[in-house]
Amino acid sequence: MFDPDEWPDDDCVAGGADLEPGTLLEAYRRGAFPMPHDRELLWWSPMRRGVLVPDDIRVSRSLARSVRRFTMTLDESFEEVIDACADPSRPGAWIDSDIRAAYVRMHELGWAHSVETRAADGTLVGGLYGLSIGALFAGESMFHRATDASKAALVELARLVGAGGLIDTQWSTPHLASLGVTEWPRELYLERINDLVDAPPPAVWA
Protein backbone atom coordinates (compact mmCIF):
# COMPACT_ATOMS: atom_id res chain seq x y z
CA MET A 1 0.00 0.00 0.00
CA PHE A 2 2.83 2.38 0.82
CA ASP A 3 5.13 1.19 -1.95
CA PRO A 4 5.71 4.19 -4.25
CA ASP A 5 6.54 1.85 -7.14
CA GLU A 6 2.91 0.75 -7.13
CA TRP A 7 1.34 4.19 -6.87
CA PRO A 8 -0.72 5.59 -9.75
CA ASP A 9 0.15 8.86 -11.47
CA ASP A 10 -2.41 10.62 -9.35
CA ASP A 11 -2.36 12.62 -6.12
CA CYS A 12 -4.50 9.97 -4.39
CA VAL A 13 -2.45 6.79 -4.12
CA ALA A 14 -4.43 4.42 -1.88
CA GLY A 15 -7.52 3.92 0.27
CA GLY A 16 -8.32 2.11 3.48
CA ALA A 17 -5.91 0.95 6.22
CA ASP A 18 -6.01 2.59 9.66
CA LEU A 19 -4.62 5.53 11.61
CA GLU A 20 -2.52 3.63 14.12
CA PRO A 21 0.82 5.29 15.00
CA GLY A 22 2.86 2.67 13.15
CA THR A 23 0.74 3.06 10.01
CA LEU A 24 1.06 6.83 10.07
CA LEU A 25 4.82 6.78 10.56
CA GLU A 26 5.30 4.28 7.76
CA ALA A 27 3.13 6.35 5.43
CA TYR A 28 4.97 9.62 6.09
CA ARG A 29 8.37 7.97 5.78
CA ARG A 30 7.25 6.73 2.34
CA GLY A 31 5.85 10.11 1.32
CA ALA A 32 2.11 9.62 1.85
CA PHE A 33 -0.36 11.22 4.25
CA PRO A 34 -4.03 10.58 5.13
CA MET A 35 -6.96 12.80 4.29
CA PRO A 36 -10.54 11.53 4.36
CA HIS A 37 -12.99 12.23 1.56
CA ASP A 38 -16.71 11.39 1.66
CA ARG A 39 -16.10 9.37 4.85
CA GLU A 40 -13.46 7.21 3.17
CA LEU A 41 -9.88 7.24 4.44
CA LEU A 42 -7.63 8.05 1.50
CA TRP A 43 -3.86 8.39 1.26
CA TRP A 44 -2.20 11.09 -0.80
CA SER A 45 1.19 11.79 -2.33
CA PRO A 46 0.80 14.79 -4.65
CA MET A 47 2.42 14.65 -8.05
CA ARG A 48 3.49 18.27 -7.37
CA ARG A 49 4.50 18.43 -3.71
CA GLY A 50 4.45 21.71 -1.83
CA VAL A 51 7.68 22.14 0.14
CA LEU A 52 9.43 24.90 2.03
CA VAL A 53 13.19 24.90 2.42
CA PRO A 54 13.55 26.79 5.74
CA ASP A 55 16.24 29.14 4.44
CA ASP A 56 13.88 30.17 1.61
CA ILE A 57 11.16 31.59 3.88
CA ARG A 58 10.08 35.01 2.64
CA VAL A 59 9.35 37.56 5.34
CA SER A 60 8.06 40.87 4.03
CA ARG A 61 8.42 44.08 6.02
CA SER A 62 4.78 44.01 6.99
CA LEU A 63 5.01 40.36 8.08
CA ALA A 64 8.15 41.13 10.10
CA ARG A 65 6.20 43.85 11.92
CA SER A 66 3.36 41.44 12.60
CA VAL A 67 5.72 38.76 13.90
CA ARG A 68 7.10 41.20 16.46
CA ARG A 69 3.60 41.75 17.85
CA PHE A 70 3.11 38.07 18.62
CA THR A 71 4.51 35.63 21.15
CA MET A 72 5.26 32.13 19.91
CA THR A 73 4.89 28.94 21.97
CA LEU A 74 5.41 25.25 21.21
CA ASP A 75 3.23 22.30 22.15
CA GLU A 76 1.36 24.24 24.82
CA SER A 77 -2.07 24.01 23.17
CA PHE A 78 -1.92 21.14 20.68
CA GLU A 79 -5.55 20.12 21.04
CA GLU A 80 -6.75 23.72 20.83
CA VAL A 81 -4.74 24.17 17.62
CA ILE A 82 -6.07 21.03 15.97
CA ASP A 83 -9.61 21.93 17.00
CA ALA A 84 -9.24 25.39 15.45
CA CYS A 85 -7.90 23.81 12.27
CA ALA A 86 -10.85 21.38 12.27
CA ASP A 87 -13.51 24.09 12.61
CA PRO A 88 -16.29 22.82 10.30
CA SER A 89 -17.17 26.38 9.28
CA ARG A 90 -13.82 26.75 7.52
CA PRO A 91 -13.84 26.23 3.73
CA GLY A 92 -12.58 22.77 2.82
CA ALA A 93 -12.67 21.50 6.41
CA TRP A 94 -11.52 17.87 6.41
CA ILE A 95 -10.28 17.02 9.91
CA ASP A 96 -12.80 14.57 11.38
CA SER A 97 -12.92 12.95 14.81
CA ASP A 98 -10.78 9.98 13.72
CA ILE A 99 -8.04 12.23 12.33
CA ARG A 100 -8.17 14.36 15.48
CA ALA A 101 -7.83 11.35 17.76
CA ALA A 102 -4.98 9.91 15.72
CA TYR A 103 -2.89 13.08 15.80
CA VAL A 104 -3.58 13.77 19.47
CA ARG A 105 -2.23 10.26 20.08
CA MET A 106 0.83 11.06 17.93
CA HIS A 107 1.34 14.20 20.00
CA GLU A 108 1.20 12.17 23.20
CA LEU A 109 3.85 9.86 21.72
CA GLY A 110 6.11 12.82 20.85
CA TRP A 111 5.73 12.78 17.06
CA ALA A 112 3.11 15.49 16.45
CA HIS A 113 3.79 19.09 17.44
CA SER A 114 2.10 22.47 17.38
CA VAL A 115 3.42 25.98 16.92
CA GLU A 116 1.15 28.54 18.55
CA THR A 117 0.83 32.26 17.83
CA ARG A 118 -0.38 34.33 20.77
CA ALA A 119 -1.54 37.90 21.19
CA ALA A 120 0.00 40.15 23.83
CA ASP A 121 -2.46 38.88 26.43
CA GLY A 122 -1.61 35.24 25.70
CA THR A 123 -4.73 34.50 23.70
CA LEU A 124 -4.25 31.90 20.97
CA VAL A 125 -4.74 33.69 17.64
CA GLY A 126 -3.11 31.29 15.18
CA GLY A 127 -0.95 28.24 14.76
CA LEU A 128 -0.16 25.06 12.93
CA TYR A 129 0.47 21.39 13.64
CA GLY A 130 2.18 18.47 11.98
CA LEU A 131 4.58 15.56 12.41
CA SER A 132 8.31 15.83 12.99
CA ILE A 133 10.11 12.79 11.58
CA GLY A 134 13.87 13.25 11.60
CA ALA A 135 14.64 16.49 9.76
CA LEU A 136 11.28 16.44 7.95
CA PHE A 137 8.34 18.39 9.33
CA ALA A 138 5.14 17.26 7.66
CA GLY A 139 2.71 20.14 8.10
CA GLU A 140 -0.95 19.18 8.36
CA SER A 141 -2.98 22.35 8.84
CA MET A 142 -2.83 25.93 10.07
CA PHE A 143 -5.30 28.58 11.17
CA HIS A 144 -5.48 32.26 12.10
CA ARG A 145 -7.79 34.52 14.07
CA ALA A 146 -5.61 37.61 13.62
CA THR A 147 -3.91 39.01 10.55
CA ASP A 148 -0.63 37.20 9.76
CA ALA A 149 -0.97 34.86 12.77
CA SER A 150 -0.67 31.67 10.71
CA LYS A 151 2.16 33.18 8.68
CA ALA A 152 4.00 33.97 11.93
CA ALA A 153 3.65 30.32 12.95
CA LEU A 154 5.21 29.22 9.66
CA VAL A 155 8.07 31.69 10.09
CA GLU A 156 8.71 30.26 13.56
CA LEU A 157 8.53 26.70 12.23
CA ALA A 158 11.12 27.50 9.55
CA ARG A 159 13.41 28.86 12.26
CA LEU A 160 12.98 25.73 14.36
CA VAL A 161 13.47 23.24 11.51
CA GLY A 162 16.51 25.17 10.34
CA ALA A 163 19.04 24.60 7.59
CA GLY A 164 19.23 21.02 6.44
CA GLY A 165 15.58 20.33 7.22
CA LEU A 166 12.47 20.46 5.07
CA ILE A 167 8.87 21.48 5.65
CA ASP A 168 6.25 19.54 3.70
CA THR A 169 3.12 21.61 3.00
CA GLN A 170 1.44 18.84 0.95
CA TRP A 171 0.23 21.16 -1.80
CA SER A 172 1.24 24.70 -2.65
CA THR A 173 -1.19 27.62 -2.83
CA PRO A 174 -0.68 31.25 -3.88
CA HIS A 175 -0.71 32.14 -0.17
CA LEU A 176 2.02 29.61 0.62
CA ALA A 177 4.00 30.46 -2.51
CA SER A 178 4.20 34.07 -1.32
CA LEU A 179 6.04 32.75 1.75
CA GLY A 180 8.58 30.75 -0.24
CA VAL A 181 6.83 27.43 -0.76
CA THR A 182 7.71 25.78 -4.07
CA GLU A 183 6.66 22.59 -5.82
CA TRP A 184 8.76 19.48 -6.29
CA PRO A 185 7.85 16.55 -8.53
CA ARG A 186 6.83 13.53 -6.50
CA GLU A 187 9.97 11.65 -7.54
CA LEU A 188 12.24 14.40 -6.21
CA TYR A 189 10.34 14.67 -2.94
CA LEU A 190 10.52 10.91 -2.35
CA GLU A 191 14.24 10.92 -3.13
CA ARG A 192 15.00 13.80 -0.77
CA ILE A 193 13.06 12.49 2.22
CA ASN A 194 14.95 9.17 2.22
CA ASP A 195 17.77 10.76 4.18
CA LEU A 196 15.72 13.41 5.97
CA VAL A 197 13.48 10.99 7.87
CA ASP A 198 16.55 9.26 9.35
CA ALA A 199 18.43 12.47 10.19
CA PRO A 200 18.55 13.95 13.69
CA PRO A 201 15.41 15.99 14.50
CA PRO A 202 15.53 19.69 15.38
CA ALA A 203 16.97 20.15 18.85
CA VAL A 204 13.69 21.53 20.20
CA TRP A 205 11.97 18.19 19.52
CA ALA A 206 14.91 15.83 20.01
TrEMBL record:
Transmembrane segments annotated in the record for this chain: none
Pfam families registered for this protein in UniProt: Leu_Phe_trans (PF03588)
Subcellular location: Cytoplasm
Entry EC number(s): 2.3.2.6
Catalysed reaction, written as an equation: N-terminal L-arginyl-[protein] + L-leucyl-tRNA(Leu) = N-terminal L-leucyl-L-arginyl-[protein] + tRNA(Leu) + H(+); N-terminal L-lysyl-[protein] + L-leucyl-tRNA(Leu) = N-terminal L-leucyl-L-lysyl-[protein] + tRNA(Leu) + H(+); L-phenylalanyl-tRNA(Phe) + an N-terminal L-alpha-aminoacyl-[protein] = an N-terminal L-phenylalanyl-L-alpha-aminoacyl-[protein] + tRNA(Phe)
Top EC class of this enzyme: transferase
Keyword Hydrolase tagged: no
UniProt xrefs under InterPro entries: Acyl_CoA_acyltransferase, Leu/Phe-tRNA_Trfase, Leu/Phe-tRNA_Trfase_C, Leu/Phe-tRNA_Trfase_N
One of the GO BP terms on file: protein catabolic process
Signal peptide boundaries: none
GO molecular function, one term: leucyl-tRNA--protein transferase activity
UniProt entry keywords in alphabetical sequence: Acyltransferase, Cytoplasm, Transferase
A GO term from the CC aspect: cytoplasm
Chief localization: cytoplasm
Family listed: Belongs to the L/F-transferase family.
HAMAP family: Leu_Phe_trans
Function summary: Functions in the N-end rule pathway of protein degradation where it conjugates Leu, Phe and, less efficiently, Met from aminoacyl-tRNAs to the N-termini of proteins containing an N-terminal arginine or lysine.
NCBIfam families: aat
Annotated protein name in UniProt: Leucyl/phenylalanyl-tRNA--protein transferase
